[in-house]
Write a structure and sequence with these properties.
It is a single chain. By secondary structure, the protein is mostly beta strands. The chain folds into three domains: about 110 residues, Immunoglobulins (Immunoglobulin-like, Sandwich); about 90 residues, Immunoglobulin-like (Sandwich); about 100 residues, Immunoglobulin-like, CATH 2.60.40. The chain is about 5% helix and about 55% strand. The protein contains one helix and 24 strands. The strands form six sheets. A five-stranded mixed beta sheet has the order 2-9-8-4-6, with no helix packed on it. A four-stranded antiparallel beta sheet has the order 1-3-7-5, with no helix packed on it.
Length: about 350
């Protein structure tokens, strides 16, 4: 029993001694602890709700409570979206160092964020931690990508235009040129919120094929982004499509040979035939053709041999196709450079 008591007393003495040892000091101080030799009296900054894309700035004060100047060491940030610059390399005795911080919210999503900035000081070695936080609001999406669409497909998307939660959003105008689009702005705010309006965009694809790219412009009372520009993109597939859409020869040397494979197919699984192919370079291009059993896909093998006229090579393969929907002419660009 006596041996056990002696062991307990020894452990307690060791703990008391190690608390005063320099090597047991914590590497990160409480930044707002004014009893510390180096501290930040206001170590956090809450920006509240901010717009995505804003650059937020704040200056922290780091106080030196000692009678000697203290060198400032390395400054680290927990996020690549932020930076910090200190006013000097040394804090004067009983003086203050200013640390100017910047947070770029461009790449941040719509959620709360917190960034830590650690300021290292020497003699004594300490780290003062400051924090910046806020809530991101994305005022509108930059793009709506519909991808590949079928003929006669009706495509519809909804998105939201927003302002900060304590403000009332007003959309005064909406402009776009493509009349195949139908844009509807909800007449009232949703969820009884004044800062959000829902927008619906619809497109009827029965009137065209190919790529479209339209910008819808909204005029709002948002002080940060008064003009909201939303780009709508897509591609309406025709009866017959090609991958790739052109024959790229690259740079050709004399007597060099290259092979390019082109897939010609019906995205609607409609059988078709290729009745004629017009070759713009019969002396330099050889074209092989084969179809699948259903006749819904054809593979063109284009073999190019060097020997074109020196300089840029430009031309066009022309194909006449036939299906139950009628005849269609397909054009495939050919381009390259002959050395």
């Amino acid at each position: 029993m006596k041996r056990k008591n002696r062991l307990t007393i020894g452990v307690l003495l060791l703990l008391l001694l190690t608390q005063g040892m320099p090597g047991c000091d914590k590497s990160v101080n409480r930044s707002d602890d004014t009893s510390a030799s180096v501290y930040a009296p206001a170590a956090s900054r809450d920006f509240g709700y901010v717009y995505q894309g804003q650059k937020l700035t704040h200056t922290f004060e780091i106080h030196n409570a000692t009678d000697a100047p203290i060198p400032i060491g390395q400054i680290k940030s927990s996020c690549g979206c932020s930076s910090a610059v200190v006013s000097g390399n040394n804090m004067p005795a009983r003086g203050v160092a200013l640390v100017r911080t910047i947070v770029d919210t461009t790449g941040k999503g719509e959620h709360p964020f917190e960034v830590f900035v650690d300021i290292g000081v020497e003699h004594p070695i300490k780290v003062v931690r400051c924090s910046l936080r806020g809530n991101i609001v994305i005022p509108y999406p930059d793009r709506i990508e519909w991808g590949r669409l079928r003929i006669d497909e009706t495509k519809r998307s909804e998105f939201y235009i927003k302002t900060l939660p304590d403000e009332t959003l007003v959309i005064s105008d909406c402009e776009y040129n493509d009349k195949r689009l139908d844009v509807t702005i909800a007449s009232a705010s949703i969820w009884r919120r004044r800062d959000v309006r829902k927008v619906s965009v619809q497109c009827l694809t029965n009137a065209f094929t190919g790529k479209f790219d339209e910008t819808i412009v909204f005029k709002t009372n948002n002080p940060f982004r008064p003009t909201a520009r939303v780009v709508v993109t897509g591609y309406v597939m025709g009866q017959i499509e090609m991958e790739p859409s052109a024959v790229s020869l690259g740079i050709l040397k004399d007597h060099e040979q290259k092979q390019i494979t082109i897939r010609v197919y019906s995205p609607y699984n409609t059988p078709f035939t290729i009745d004629e192919i017009r070759n713009p370079f019969p002396d330099n291009l050889t074209i092989g053709i084969v179809s699948n059993d259903e006749g819904t896909e054809w593979i063109l093998t284009v073999v190019a041999r060097g020997g074109f006229q020196k300089g840029k090579v430009t031309g066009e393969l022309q194909m006449r196709t036939q299906s139950e929907r009628g005849a269609a002419d397909i054009r495939i660009g050919v381009f390259g450079i002959q050395r």
